[in-house]
Amino acid sequence: MVHAEQIISQTKKWITDVVIGCNFCPFAAREMKRNTVRFTVSESQSIEECLTAFLEACRQLDDDESIETTLVIFPNLTGDFEEYLDLVEMAEELIASEDYEGVYQVASFHPEYQFAGVASDDPANFTNRSPYPMLHLLREESLEKALEFYQGDPEEIPENNIRFAREKGLLYMKMLRDNCF
Which domain of life is it from (predicted)? Predict the structure, then answer.
């Protein structure tokens, strides 16, 4: 059984080597250096338990302004990617029903992430393929501030990421992610 410390270590390596290393998120390096990213591992196996852990992460962000962003990692979440997308949709609904719209935003990462209309073996999927299923909670106010200082067009970030991943190829992107274990 993999312990929470190891899961967090593997996730940090993924952020460092893939997210920052490939510049998929131009804002991640700053927060990692500032140590303002919170990592929480939820042993939850059901969607309901995962949503409870997610809501708890929202409340922790409410209570601690020194935390800029939180990754809620679900190493025991079974099921396929489509079931995970149900979790993402329910998390977004929870954001709305708990009056967190405009406060927090959800980003999604999964080991089998697949963009709609894209083949499963497209390297572009690795822009969102993580070691474990996870939900990333971001403070919208902080994201807006970061975008003000961003040198470039933020709308181009996803396309740049896809282009980078496709140029590097499937084997390279898979190796990068797999080296996190």
Answer: Bacteria
